[in-house]
Design brief:
The complex is a heterodimer of chains A (438) and B (464). Chain A is an alpha+beta fold and 438 residues long. Chain A has nine helices and 23 strands. In chain A, a hairpin with a 4-residue loop joins strand 17 and strand 18. Chain A is globular and about 70 Å long. The chains are: A alpha+beta (438), B alpha+beta (464).
């Protein structure tokens, strides 16, 4: 049976058993074309789908999912979800009620170009890189696209569906000059195939990675830091979101717990999530519980206004539901951002310090519970307002909340980075951070 | 898992369409996950994942498709689409004629669990998790304990047009305990997460109370730890998960995925000295019940024990089918993938530095000022430039050869296999630890391991 039929089968069975159930079914299509050495090296075409169920029985919540849509598998899913619910110690579980949310298409004809044009984009990106003699190896060049159709239904009346997708150009390559070697990457993302320009992405790679060649060690010390937009988005996606999640607040893991209404960042810092952003890569009409999308200001001129909620966290904290429920068919209910961004500022004037162009080791070196981070970084040494030379083999360390408080200037333009959701940031200047090197 | 005639039909259809080689990979997973926070079951979930991946080679060009509709119509249609994608549909090649003579290889159950996945008593699981929590309460500063129990069973079939037919069943279980300690100074964590290719007997090998206790003690240590110093210094790295340094700084550079494209600084270096004499580095897929062990790799080839570096000299790379075609190196049973949504690439299994002969205590002697990285977190590498990093989860200052105050937040960074050459002594106390490794073919269970060892100098990132 299809995933939609599986959804209906599960809802019907749940009703018959007297269990409240919410079913999320998604079906996605993916195409990836990988170029190497002037040829298409690998093509992947895929379809994948699954159906996940959240049930509430005796006031407790349980989950299960399947990609195999046979009646036996679906029966197993309902039975396991029910059993999992009964295992829970927490009562007060519920499913939000709702209505018909409609069918939405947020992708349209964006990815409808012929296959041949897609192959050409991947090949053109690679040849664009190879035009520069400093490019020693192009490790990977890829065009890929993905579209997803998500359908939501519940025994409490929620029903709705939407379709979304994007196209991506991505490359990773090695540049060399003398003894100096640098491996970098570059990408561009769009909902419109025709908006991707291989030449522009190749130039961006050459500029960003090329400027790091001939890097010198950095002397250990405390310096002013200029985070490039994508680098700051990396840190924000990893640590900022963790702190804003009401789920983490409720579980006592967020350093921002109890700080609503207080100053938690520099007063020039405003942080917004907007799922209604026209053309936003992570825009959506409603969240995975069926709560309609709306814009949320989390931090306004340094003051914490709200955490990110789903219906469960909002109810427990007596707060307004911000509509950030997130769940894949395999997962459990959580909260996730959509288009999360730092509001741009008046501009950054570089004098002395370090431009951080890329951070590495985030999954191990950034601890969102303690707020502390110590990360490998790549960057440029700035002296008297000029870039003096690139630096390498160093780390940048600090405390994320102290960093937010010490932001002294913000750039004027946003760049987006797909982290969890899509994170946007301008250039961010931080008064001082700790750097370790030679 | 699939009818042999259907598998044969798919593979032959692909060959008839001009592919040199066709491989069908089919799998079914059953998973369970339990997250318990401070005595309360927060999340309980179960799932079935089911799908197939079809890979065709045209020379060294690869087309791959996956789906979780495994009906005969869908699989045959998928094959058709894939052949068309390559643009050579309709060609009839004589290789496509005649029957396929599958050589069936069924796993012997070398890593089979004592307690099967279907043992369904969830209360039993919960009781053992509560023991872990109780174990973690080593001081009043421990405010929270989170335990995750993850179990899965994966049935796999790999069949290819050369007649390979390999079936395997893999069961893995992991308990992951995070203790959170808090006082006026802030919040710190301790993490311990044993995992093996076993069922719930994991609890016998790693008593939950002890796992919890170690997590609790580490959180307390980090709470009283000062921020790590910054600079270049000698570092002693602890046994077990300490081996993540070699996983990042050396292991990834020896996978044909980057070696074949000369995108590794260790490409074309067989027979050359790449590490100091005291380093022997092995990747072993056969360790009984190892977290990264399996009888067959995900290309249907038996896994093996591969000596990568012997006394500092590079002896072998880790080679998958495509890597072998591209480089001519012998395949090492290293083709692995997260699941059917990924085509396989060369990946590590259980990778470790072999024991040396320096007593552990000797490593610390003569260090005026340095760092003891007792336990490590994860790390990352860019194989092309060799730049790598890894985080220290539990660290202490070494002063005048003695262990002194704990420090937290240290990150070790390096470039190229330089640090490997700076290993000056290896102890005799090999231990292994489980981890998840993310790369081109997804996130995979791997073990990393090593004895205690001394690196003469490395950049330690901390507070300047």
């Amino acid at each position: 049976m299809t995933f939609e039929e599986a959804r209906d089968y599960l809802l019907q069975k749940a009703r018959a058993l007297g269990i409240e159930a919410e079913v999320l079914a998604t079906h996605s299509r993916e195409l990836t074309i990988q170029a190497h050495g002037g040829k298409v090296e690998e093509i992947t075409q895929a379809t994948q789908g699954g159906v996940g169920v959240r049930v509430v029985a005796a006031g407790k919540t349980g989950y299960a999912y399947t990609e195999e849509c046979t009646p036996e598998a679906l029966d197993w899913v309902l039975q396991e979800a029910h059993e999992n619910a009964l295992l829970q110690s927490e009562t007060g579980g519920f499913l939000p009620s709702g209505g018909a949310l409609g069918q939405h298409d947020l992708l349209g004809e964006g990815l409808s170009a012929p296959l041949e044009q897609k192959r050409q984009k991947a090949l053109a990106l690679e040849s664009g890189l190879r035009a520069d003699p400093r490019v020693k190896q192009v490790q990977m060049t890829r065009y890929s696209e993905s579209e997803t159709q998500a359908t939501l239904g519940s025994t409490r009346g929620v029903s709705g569906a939407f379709r979304n997708g994007y196209a991506l150009l991505l490359t990773s390559a090695i540049m060399a000059e003398g003894q100096s070697l640098k491996q970098g990457y570059e990408f561009d993302l769009s909902k419109e195939f025709h908006a991707l320009e291989p030449g522009r992405t190749a130039q961006a790679f050459l500029q960003k990675t090329g400027r790091l060649l001939g890097a010198r060690p950095l002397k250990t010390g405390r310096y002013k830091a200029y985070f490039e937009p994508k680098a700051f988005a990396q840190l924000l996606g990893m640590m900022g979101w963790f702190l804003l999640s009401a789920k983490n607040v409720l579980e006592g893991k967020s350093l921002l717990a109890g700080k609503i209404g207080q100053k938690v960042a520099s007063e020039i810092f405003t942080l917004i999530d907007d799922p209604t952003l026209p053309g936003g890569l992570a825009s959506r009409p409603f969240d995975t519980e069926g709560t309609p999308a709306k814009r949320t200001v989390f931090i306004e001129q340094g003051v914490l206004r709200t955490f990110a909620h789903n219906s469960e966290t909002a109810r427990k904290m007596g707060a307004e539901n911000t509509g950030h429920a997130a769940r894949s068919y395999k997962g459990v209910l959580g909260v996730a951002p959509t288009n999360l961004f730092v509001q741009p500022g008046q501009g950054v004037k570089q004098d002395n310090g370090i431009i951080l162009s890329d951070l590495m080791g985030l999954h191990a070196g950034a601890n969102p519970i303690s707020g502390e981070f110590s990360l490998q970084a790549l960057g440029l040494w700035v002296e008297g307002g000029e870039v003096a030379y690139p630096v390498e083999n160093f780390t940048v360390a600090g405390n994320f909340l102290e960093l937010l408080a010490n932001i002294t200037a913000l750039g004027t333009e946003l760049e987006w980075n797909p982290m969890m959701g899509i994170v946007g940031s301008p250039m961010v200047e931080v008064a001082e951070l700790s750097f370790a090197g030679a | 898992m699939l009818d042999q005639a259907l598998v044969g039909e798919v593979l032959q259809k692909a060959r008839a369409g001009g592919a040199d080689f066709a491989e069908l990979y089919v799998e079914r997973w059953r998973r369970r996950a339990l997250r318990v926070l401070s005595g309360e079951v927060k999340e309980a979930t179960s799932g079935i994942e089911y799908g197939a991946g079809l890979r065709l080679f045209y020379g060294t060009e690869v087309v791959y498709a996956y789906t979780n509709d495994l009906s005969p119509e869908s699989l045959l249609e998928l094959t058709e689409t894939l052949v068309k994608l390559k643009g050579s549909a309709g060609q009839v090649d004589e290789r496509g004629r005649g029957g396929l003579d599958f050589r069936k290889a069924v796993a012997q159950g070398l890593h089979a669990p004592e307690i099967p996945f279907t043992a369904r008593d969830k209360r039993y699981r919960l009781e053992r998790i509560r023991e872990a929590e109780a174990g973690a309460m080593v001081g009043p500063q421990i405010k929270q304990v989170q335990s995750n129990l993850m179990e899965w069973e994966q049935e796999v079939l790999v069949a290819n047009s050369e007649g390979t037919w390999a079936e395997d069943r893999r069961v893995r279980t992991r308990l992951y305990v995070t203790a959170i300690a808090q006082d006026e100074s802030g919040m710190q964590t301790g993490v311990v997460g044993p995992g093996l290719s076993v069922g719930l007997e994991l609890f016998d090998r790693y008593p939950p109370a002890e796992v919890g206790r170690r997590a609790g003690l580490q959180a307390l240590t980090n709470l009283r730890a000062k921020p790590a110093p910054a600079g270049t210094m000698p570092v002693v790295i602890g046994s077990g998960f300490g081996g993540v340094i070699f996983h990042e700084a050396l292991g990834h550079l020896l996978e044909t995925t980057s070696v074949a494209k000369k995108a590794s600084v260790l490409s074309d270096k067989l027979g050359e000295k790449v590490a100091s004499d005291c380093v022997t580095y092995i990747d072993d897929g056969t360790t009984p019940h190892g977290w990264g062990s399996q009888e067959f790799d995900d290309e249907g080839r038996p896994t093996e024990r591969t000596v990568l570096i012997e006394n500092g000299v590079l002896k072998s790379y880790m080679v998958d089918r495509l890597g072998s075609l591209l480089t001519g190196y012998r395949p090492t049973g290293s083709g692995r993938r997260q699941d059917y949504t990924f085509a396989p690439t060369s990946r590590m299994r259980n990778t470790f530095i072999a024991p040396g002969n320096t007593p552990k205590e000797k490593l610390f002697e003569g260090i005026e000022y340095g760092l003891y990285a007792a336990d490590m977190g994860g790390g990352q590498v860019r194989p092309g430039s060799g730049e790598y990093n890894f985080a220290v989860k539990e660290g202490y200052i070494i002063r005048h050869g003695r262990l002194e105050e704990p420090v937290r937040g240290a990150m070790l960074v390096g470039k190229g296999p330089e640090s490997i050459k700076r290993i000056v002594a290896v102890s005799d106390d090999l231990e292994m630890g489980p981890g998840m490794c993310g790369s081109l073919s997804g996130s995979l269970p791997v073990e990393v391991g090593q004895p205690h060892l001394l690196i003469s100098e490395i950049v330690v990132g901390g507070q300047a």
